[in-house]
Inverse folding.
């Protein structure tokens, strides 16, 4: 199991094997309307067995159009997920998605760390040039987190999701160039401190 570690959390590839207990935890997140309201999802209607079968099938047959990770604590406990989805390798774009599934872990900066780790991985190991995202206008906490990670506001636009229908979405994005410029400044600052 290869985990990319940050200061307080790590990213474990989605395709790594999961235990039955971990599947039950992820299933619980997918049934929790409070968790899902912020990420644009709706509670699953699948049974636990159907959910487990689908998750394991997705792991065995990875899509070439996503890079997905579980967010883990040093103890190994999974607390959320983050990924880049709807990847268009020709246009070199993708869309960010994140959810901290454990409400007891909200407000601790784990989402920001997960996004920072994922962007580092994407911009250092793939050819993707731009990552975008959409969030609900009322999700100010998420917008502040995304901005702290270098995303900039593009527009508010009508979106459609098969799960929830039409909604207004705040569009944000970051490019490889922006990420490199921001991170080269951080690297220089840390070297200056020595």
């Amino acid at each position: 199991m290869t985990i990319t570690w940050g200061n307080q959390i790590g990213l474990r590839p989605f395709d790594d094997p999961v235990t039955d207990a971990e599947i039950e935890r992820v299933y619980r997140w997918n049934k929790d309307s409070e968790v899902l309201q912020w990420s644009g999802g709706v509670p699953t209607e699948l049974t636990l067995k159907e959910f487990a079968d689908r998750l394991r099938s997705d792991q065995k047959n990875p899509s070439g159009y996503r890079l997905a990770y579980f967010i883990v604590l040093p103890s190994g406990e999974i607390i959320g997920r983050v990924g880049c989805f709807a990847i268009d390798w020709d246009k070199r774009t993708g869309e960010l998605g994140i959810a901290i599934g454990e409400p007891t872990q909200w407000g601790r900066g784990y989402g920001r760390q997960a996004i920072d780790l994922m962007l580092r991985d994407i911009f250092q190991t793939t050819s993707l040039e731009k990552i975008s995202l959409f969030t609900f206008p009322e999700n100010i906490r998420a917008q502040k987190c995304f901005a702290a990670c270098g995303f900039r506001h593009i527009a508010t636009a009508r979106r459609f999701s098969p799960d929830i229908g039409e909604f207004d979405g705040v569009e944000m994005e970051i490019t490889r160039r922006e990420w490199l410029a921001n991170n080269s400044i951080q690297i220089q600052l840390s070297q200056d401190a020595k």
DSSP finds six helices and eight strands in the chain. Confidence is low (pLDDT under 50) at residues 187-194.
